[in-house]
Design goal:
By secondary structure, this protein is mainly β. 13% of the residues lie in helices and 38% in strands.
């Protein structure tokens, strides 16, 4: 439903003009479409500021707001073109409805029971180029953790206003990598278990399935959780774990670290990701390869907008070619994928202040990064050492070509990559 109201002195004239414009549009629609929109468009012939109620109070200083499916008043983002930063597009209001439906479907109460572990609860994170915020958490015992078969991470990345409340105006205006690590209590042996990309000036809420990383919670007891956003963000964090026991599938019990870290996407990329060995224990019943892979940077002239805005293919091989699998990022060449209704319905918070609309290599601004998971059980030798090989290339049409050379006069292309072999007993 769309409500139009004005607080200008000529409010009646304004509202009538808006209604006349819609009437012209509606007359070209089918009868059923006209009936739908006539019941969803509302033109208020009263001066907004004179209503003297919650509506007039909410509209002060705002051109629009929304009411979500949980009956909360919500801000509306920037309605200009994210490529040119011009215009005001009323159709972009629909983006808000699609995203609020995503939140409603994701966070409505469910019948499925889970244990909730609170890591951060509305805690301010002031950031910095290498700053982190940490919390020591007492996890359940190993016997209890082994009963869980599903793990989700719930992150509300709010932005504090001057009163410590939530406001888009308090948000950082840049897309940055955010990560959650689990470490030993003393801060050693940290492992990335969740990755997000921050939005341009908005406050997203995501629930991310990271079930393979249950193996990193073992053997329970005290663990350090570390949250980090690169750059200089300002966040109001609420972060929780959800642990489920469905008794339907096996629980991940152990893991073997593979490649990790950020490496330049250039002709030497493969040399910096050498083949790795891993041993598969005798009693394993399932083996998975799990990774976070995102491309960043665009270099200078001749870098083909890699690795953020170019399609790259990531190719893996088990035991000398017994099995091969790959993933790529065709949406990285799109001018508008991240602002598509498909992407917004999957959790991209819309109407951001920056160039949020462009497709990226494995991510969109204001969205969680889903882990890349492949079942490799049938292709490994149980009880023996195995080898996994990896390489990547730039995709040009149907060809796979060498990554570009960066001359160092821009943000050189790079791949942020972390990966593990997960074992189920």
């Amino acid at each position: 439903h769309y409500f139009f109201i004005s607080s200008e002195n000529n409010y009646i004239t304004q509202i009538n003009q808006i209604k006349e414009e819609f009437d012209l549009v509606l007359q070209d629609l089918s009868e059923s479409e006209q009936l739908h929109w006539k019941s969803h468009l509302h033109f208020i012939p009263d001066k907004g500021i004179d209503l003297e109620n919650w509506l007039s109070n909410t509209l002060i200083g705002n051109y629009a707001f929304a009411i979500d499916g949980m009956q909360k008043i919500r801000e509306v983002g920037y309605l200009g073109n994210p490529a040119t930063f011009t215009g005001t597009y009323l159709s972009y209001i629909a983006h808000e409805a699609v995203y609020l439906n995503y939140e409603l479907n994701t966070f409505s109460p469910i019948e499925e029971e889970y244990e909730e572990i609170i890591i951060f609860d509305e805690e301010i994170y002031t950031g910095g180029w290498a700053a982190t915020t940490t919390k020591i958490v007492d996890l359940p015992s190993d016997d209890i953790i082994q009963q869980y078969d599903k793990l989700e991470v719930d992150l509300l990345r709010g932005c504090p206003d001057s009163n410590g409340g939530y406001s888009d105006a308090g948000c950082d205006e840049y897309d940055r990598i955010a990560r959650l690590f689990i470490c030993n209590e003393d801060g050693s042996d940290c492992i990335e278990i969740t990755r997000w990309i921050t939005p341009f000036g908005r406050q997203p809420h995501h629930l991310t399935d990271v079930s393979p990383f249950i193996s990193m919670l073992r053997p329970g007891g005290s663990k350090m959780f570390k949250f980090q956003e690169s750059g200089w963000p300002n966040s109001l964090l609420t972060l929780k774990l959800r642990l489920y026991n469905n008794s339907e599938i096996e629980s991940p019990k152990d893991y073997s670290p593979m490649w990790s870290g950020t490496v330049g996407f250039n002709p030497n990329y493969g040399e910096n990701r050498p083949p790795l060995d891993f041993n598969v224990p005798n009693n394993v019943i399932k083996v998975e390869f799990v990774a976070y892979i995102t491309g960043h940077g665009w270099g200078s002239a001749g870098c083909f907008n890699c690795a953020e805005f170019c399609n790259s293919k990531h190719i893996f091989s088990i035991n000398g070619g017994v099995h091969e699998f790959e993933t790529s990022f065709p949406n990285a060449a799109s001018n508008n994928y991240c602002m598509s209704l498909e992407a917004i319905s999957e959790g991209v918070i819309p109407n951001q202040g920056g160039t949020w609309g462009y497709g990226r290599a494995g991510w969109c601004p204001g969205q969680d990064v889903k882990p890349y998971v492949v079942d490799i059980t049938d292709y490994v030798e149980v009880g023996n050492d195995n080898i996994i090989e990896y390489d990547a290339c730039r995709v040009v049409g149907n060809s796979c070509v060498t990554p570009p050379v960066c001359n160092g006069d821009g943000y050189c292309p790079e791949i942020a990559f972390s990966s593990h072999i997960i074992f189920y007993y």
